[in-house]
Predict the structure.
Amino acid sequence: MNLRSRRVVSLALALGFIAVLAGHLASQTTTPVPLTVLSKDGRRQLALTLVGDQEFVGVDDLATFFQLTTREDALGALTVSYKGRSIVLTVDQPLASVAGRLVALPAPSTRAGRRWLVPVEFIPRALTLVYDTKLDLRKPSHLLVMGDLRVPRVTVRYDLLSPGARLTIDATPRATSTVGQDSERLTIKFDADALDIANPPLAAPGPQSLVQAVRVLDAVTLTVDLGPRNAGFRATSQPVDTTMRLTIDVAEAAPQVPLPPAAPAAPAPVAPPEAPPALGPAVATIRTVAIDPGHGGMDEGAKGANGTKEKDVTLAVARRVKAALETRLGIRVLLTRDDDRDLLVDDRTAVANNNKADLFISLHLNTSRRAPVAGASIYYAAFDRRAEDTANAAARIERVPVVGGGTRDIELTAWDLAQTRHLDQSRSFATVLEEQLRDHVPLAAKSVDRAPLAVLKSANMPAVLVEMGFLTNADQETAVIGNDFQTTFVQALSDAIVKYRDSLAGAAR
């Protein structure tokens, strides 16, 4: 072999060695964030191994955690068993055989020395099929939940308002929470066993922000550090699909503008003291509206000949109303339900009362034994004279303590008589709404009326119930599910709220 040939062979061997070394180094594993296993017995850590870009877990570690038995046969297959149920793995194959059923894995099983490694997805795809406890892998959070623990995913969003700021905290599936305050810090405690949340939940908005930090305090509690310019907060909760949304609005204190130094002036004659000016009433406005989509869940409400269900139409229109009012008017809108679920009458009113809504509107569709009957109608609550007298007699003043010391007087009224104090305003809004609907939406012969409706009696604010039409009328059944009718109805309702709000402001001046 000549010198040139020997050099070519040497170069080839060197390149081959480098390729083998590179492959060997690429196959070397690194240690990623471990998997946190949550169970009724507490928290444990399960080590993971990174091979390429995939996270793997040792079968021996799984066997220890989940009381599995393993057996490797002469052909190189590994059998993983739990209480007589088995999973068969083959090295370098991205499959697992579970009771004869093939389950795909994102990467082949592999070996590191004498250890078998499987992709972490082996747990929810294969192990859960033989295990007798629910296994919920939350891979982005490196979390594995064992059993029926309540571990909602919690997300936090921070938005600047003008003025003020808003924290929106979503818990999915729904988990209620309580908000407490200690000086400039809020604590949010969730009714859960643990939280699936990033840490920190929110990047620090900055030292001058109304919200300076959100941190995890313990397994079920967050803390919110408020900035020095905050002037208080308001917290409200509302279900949104499968999520419970907590909204915390933080008010901003008005800046202190120093007064310019006064120029010296000649002494003025002393005048008799004047009486302080009388304080006029605050200008009334509408900040929060509660929209109640009638019926829901097992209670379908009215049903049209073509299968249209009242519960579906009321929810669709309510969602449109919410979007329109929030987008066009900047009004906060609460839906008593945002999905197809059962809801008690008192719970509907409670959403409005507990969130101090300024207006309550319940949406429905009507039925009649006479098919030609059609048209929308608006109702406000009716009480007999005895009930109104009872409400006036039962109302009482009670002195209660307030945060920061001192007391204040509040007037207490029976729950089912709360509407008696708002009947005049309810009738006024019903009249305004009828005016806006006329010439845009077909109206019934008697379009505004009183009725002893349970959903209105407990509303502690002006409240109406709107029957948008009759599902037993074929033409109206077709119309109410159409875009034209719903758009026109929502526009008329928005206009009525604006007109009513303006009338309140004018009366308060």
User: Anything to note?
Assistant: The domain at 153-252 is CATH 2.60.40.3500 (Immunoglobulin-like). Residues 11-29, 268-283, 393-400, 408-413 have pLDDT under 50 and may be disordered. The two ends are 109 Å apart (CA to CA).
